[in-house]
Amino acid sequence: MTNAVDIENVSLVFGGEGNNPVLAVDTINIAIPKGQFVAIVGPSGCGKTTVLNMLSGLIPPTAGSVKRNGKEVDGPSRDVGYMLARSALSPWRTALKNIEMGLQIHGVDKATRRARAHELISLLHLDGFENSYPSQLSQGMRQRVAIARTLAIEPDLWLMDEPFGALDAQTRIKVQGEFINLWERSGESSVIFVTHDLEEAVLLADRVIVMTARPGRIKSDTLIDLPRPRVIDELRFDEKFKDAEHRIWKELRDEII
Amino acid sequence: MKSSDTTSPDGSNNETSNLEEPNAQQERFDMSVITDVPRWQRILKALDLPVQFLRIGLLVLIIWAWETRWIFKGWSPFGFELFPEIIPLFQGIPSEAGEFLLDIWDDSLFWSDFWVTLQEALLGFVLGSGLGFIVGLLLGSFRKVAKVLAPFLIFTNAVPKIALAPILILWYGVDIASKVALATIIVFFIVQIPVQAAVSGVDPDLDVVATSMGATQAQKFRFVVIPGILGPLFGALRLSAIYSILAVVLGEFIVSKRGLGQRLLSETNNFGMSNAIALITILAGLALAFNAIIGMMERRFLKWQDTEARGKVVSL
Predict the structure, then answer these.
(1) Residue A176 domain-assigned?
(2) Which of A226, B147, B249, B290 would be a feasible disulfide site paired with B261, CB 3.0-4.6 Å?
(3) Which pLDDT value is given to residue B311?
(4) Does residue B41 sit in helix, strand or coil?
């Protein structure tokens, strides 16, 4: 079976010839089987977002190969959902229309995309806010609309760039729970979840990859052996969870301190 | 320790439930204070009568000072002729202007002049803002092209456009085409410059999102760029509406056979001052009507900004 993602000897340099080139990512290798939830943690500026940008086809690697389902990535694909750190909702679109945006770009007819958007509205507990503009929504709701917009196109690879970074602690727990439920019921979708929050990474993921400070290399790659489905608001007090987090923290600490 | 363990949970539970529940009931804010205000009271408040009375009073005062020719007396503080005294031949008053307005109401010649000016202004507005929009959009989106054209556009914009009027009349003739050309050139820059600037002001994250979804360039224009620049665009269009009328009246002043500007000039040349004032009022009315139509479109297209301004934020 082909992997969802194969990153082979990939390096990326920003700013070429004379422009003070910066080595952002240095010869990394990551293979992700279908259906796996991978979290990437690392200090700020370690190239986490760059990895997502390469996978989404926004920027090509300087060296090495980035493959999705065994095929070289050569541009954006309809099978990839990319959620940015900032919710980046269109302020002139209502919540419902924001969710529909990807489907509209893909040329899906109005009735189908409306139905799909309504389904996500209720899955993410946004009922009653279908016709609200982003400025009328709280931060937590905006982030949920952005999740819904990313998942509306039914991607088989979810690229999440610190999706909950801007949320307060309580809202974050709530949205994390909703997100993990969506993924657990989605079946075969693979997730790459970039975060600077180790607790979040261990709570959600099957596997946590720690990257080093610039230039980004892979420091450690750990499988998280916690049962699913996970009830994350309880799991955070579990001893096995705490052990796993502590083990990885020792790796990460060297990069931060 | 033991005694407090057994008594305190029960005791405190009872206490809190006894204390908090009735309190919460009593102190709840009575929403009917706000929701039950009668409709007529709300309308009255929205009308803001004191402001309306002051406005009407001020208008009456201005017309009175004008009608009694008080404003033509002149005022020269410290021997400096700030407002010169106006000789009776050059004076026009509201009542005579009003008579003129009633007279021309069923004068078909006036309406054909009105139509000529309206046509010139509308064509100039549509052509100028249309071209300005398209060029601004393209230059804002394609930086290389913008870089090549920048010096040419800056120089052309620096030309005092009115100075082109005599040349345009030679090129396009004395009829409406030359006035349309002048209005087009003036309106073009009013729209092109802010539109181009607004394109680079659109949130780059929205572009990244659309790109990652596989949007084509045309789709990005439609879903990201154009909705993102509507605010500045409408600001420019409001200004353009007024300037298109200004441009065609000016063009008609120079050479023309028909039009309100031409009529205004000939009235002034014949010392029909009240008539000239009436014509100026009509031109201002035209500009206001233009502005109102654009304002209606703006409210329709920028509904989301309206709600943003109201800041109706709901929490989780």
Answers:
(1) no
(2) B249
(3) 41
(4) helix
Q: Residue A135: is it exposed, middle or buried by C-beta count within 10 angstroms (0-12/13-18/19+)?
A: middle
Q: Give strand pairing partners of A140.
A: none
Q: Is the peptide bond before A229 cis (omega within 30 degrees of 0)?
A: yes
In a domain, A142, yes or no: yes
CB contact under 8 A, A58 and B313: no
B interface test, pick of A105, A172, A174, A192 with most B CB neighbours within 10 Å:
A105
What's the mean pLDDT in A96-107? 94
- Which domains does chain B carry? 90-299 (1.10.3720.10)
Instruction: Say which range, A22-36, A91-105, A113-127, B297-311, has the weakest mean pLDDT.
Output: B297-311
Set of chain A residues whose Cβ sits within 8 Å of the Cβ of B222: none
Q: Which of A214-228, B64-78, B299-313 has the lowest mean pLDDT?
A: B299-313
DSSP state of A133: -
A6-64 confidence digits (pLDDT tens): 999 998 988 766 678 888 888 889 999 999 999 999 888 788 889 999 999 999 999 99
Query: Given an 8 Å threshold on Cβ–Cβ distance, is A101 in contact with B223?
Result: yes
pTM: 0.79
Point out which residues pair with A216 in neighbouring strands.
A25
CB-nearest to A91 from B211, B304, B316 is B304
Q: State the DSSP string of A38-76.
A: EEEE-STTSSHHHHHHHHTTSS--SEEEEEETTEE--S-
